[in-house]
Automatic annotation (TrEMBL):
InterPro entries: Bact_Solute-Bind_Prot2 (IPR050555), Peripla_BP_I (IPR028082), SBP_2_dom (IPR025997). Residues 1-44 form the signal peptide. It is found in: Periplasm. This is LacI family transcriptional regulator.
C-alpha cells in the first residue's frame, strides 16, 4: 500500500518558516530525553531524513486540530523529519484503520497517533511495533499505550480532567449539571463525562448527541426545557461549545447557567474573558503534536525515551487569565 494521496485528509509538512517564539520545555519534560534540545538534535541528524507518520481522529471542522497539526509541523521542521499527517474528514473507525494499515506498509521510522477506540486500534498498532516501528500515542489512549508497547503517551488523563472540571463546578455552587458527549464511544470523551459525573457522586447527567451542531443545540435545549433545575453545562470540546455559545446568546441564557468546556477556540476564550463562561480546560494540544515528533526523533537517533507518560494538561483558563491566552490562540499555539 502507498501513503494516502487524499488531499482533504493528508498533508505533507516540512515547509521552512520562522518560529515566532522560543519554546521552553519545563518540569518533567526537561528530564531524561527531553533535556537534549531540538537544535542539538537537528545538527546531528542523519544524512537521510527520518520519515514519520502522524494519524489522528480529529476531524477537519474541529479547530483543536489546527493547533495540534501546527505542533507536528514545527517539530518536524526543527528535527529534520519528513512527516505525513492524516486525519479523517469525519470520524470513522474503519477509515482510521485503513490509515494505520497504509502507514505500517510504508515502514516509517516512527508513528504518532491517537487511539480513541482501544478495542479497534490496539491490534494494528501492536503489529506496527512488532514490525519495528516505534509508536507514540497522543491525546487519547493513555489506558492502552503502555500495554501495547508504545514508547509513551503524550496528553492528559481524561478521567482526572473530567473530575477536576466537576470539582471546580461544585465549588461554584453547581448542583445539577449535564455533560454533553458529542461522540459517545470515544474513550476520551466517555472518560471525561465519567470523571465529571463521579465528582457529583453520580448526580450529573450525560447528554449524548452526534457531532452535528444543530443536533447538539437541540438536544441541550430540549433537556433544559424538560429539566429546569439544571444549573450547569459541561461541553467536551469546541464542536459543541461554539454552537452552544451562539444558541445561549440568542436565547439570552448566557450567564444564567454555569457553562464550561474542554478545549479552546477564539469564541470560547472571549466568552470566558467576558464572564459569560465559568472556565475552559486547556490540554495544550500544541504539545501533543510537538512532543511525540521530538520523542520519536530522539529515540531513532540516540535511543532516548521518557520513562513516564507526559501530561500536557489540564490547565484551567478563567476570566483572570483568558486575555493572555487569546493572543496565542490567534497565533495558532493554544
Amino acid at each position: 500500500m502507498s501513503k494516502s494521496t487524499d488531499k482533504t485528509s493528508a498533508t505533507h509538512t516540512g515547509v521552512k518558516r520562522p518560529i515566532p517564539f522560543s519554546r521552553a520545555i519545563t518540569g518533567a519534560l526537561v528530564a531524561g530525553a527531553m533535556a537534549l534540545s531540538a537544535s542539538q538534535a537537528a545538527v546531528a541528524q542523519d544524512a537521510d531524513p527520518l520519515k514519520f507518520v502522524a494519524i489522528t481522529h480529529i476531524v477537519a471542522a474541529d479547530p483543536f486540530g489546527n493547533v495540534l497539526k501546527r505542533g507536528f509541523e514545527d517539530a518536524a521542521e526543527e528535527m529534520g523529519v519528513e512527516l505525513l499527517y492524516n486525519s479523517p474528514a469525519q470520524y470513522d473507525t474503519s477509515q482510521m484503520l485503513r490509515m494505520i494499515e497504509q502507514a505500517i506498509a510504508t515502514q516509517p521510522d516512527g508513528l504518532a497517533l491517537t487511539m480513541p477506540d482501544a478495542s479497534a486500534f490496539a491490534e494494528p498498532v501492536r503489529e506496527a511495533i512488532a514490525a519495528g516501528i516505534p509508536v507514540v500515542v497522543l491525546n487519547t489512549g493513555e489506558e492502552i499505550a503502555g500495554e501495547i508497547g508504545a514508547l509513551n503517551y503524550v496528553g492528559q488523563s481524561e478521567y482526572r480532567a473530567g473530575k477536576m472540571a466537576g470539582e471546580r463546578m461544585k465549588e461554584a455552587g453547581v448542583e445539577s449539571p449535564i455533560c454533553i458527549n458529542f461522540a459517545p464511544g470515544q474513550s476520551q470523551l466517555d472518560a471525561r463525562c465519567k470523571g465529571f459525573t463521579d465528582a457529583f457522586d453520580g448526580s450529573a447527567e450525560q447528554i449524548s448527541t452526534t457531532q452535528d451542531p444543530t443536533a447538539i443545540t437541540n438536544a441541550v435545549l430540549a433537556h433544559l426545557n424538560s429539566s429546569p433545575d439544571t444549573d450547569g453545562v459541561l461541553s467536551l470540546g469546541s464542536l459543541a461549545t461554539d454552537p452552544l455559545i451562539n444558541e445561549f446568546r440568542s436565547q439570552g441564557a448566557m450567564g444564567q447557567i454555569a457553562f464550561a468546556t474542554f478545549d479552546l477556540s477564539a469564541e470560547t476564550l472571549e466568552a470566558v474573558r467576558d464572564g459569560e463562561m465559568l472556565f475552559a480546560m486547556d490540554q495544550q494540544q500544541y504539545l501533543q503534536g510537538y512532543l511525540p515528533i521530538i520523542s520519536l526523533a530522539l529515540y531513532n537517533r540516540y535511543g532516548l525515551k521518557p520513562t513516564n507518560n507526559i501530561q500536557t494538561g489540564p490547565n484551567f483558563i478563567t476570566q483572570e487569565n483568558a486575555e493572555q491566552v487569546i493572543e496565542l490562540t490567534q497565533q495558532g499555539y493554544r
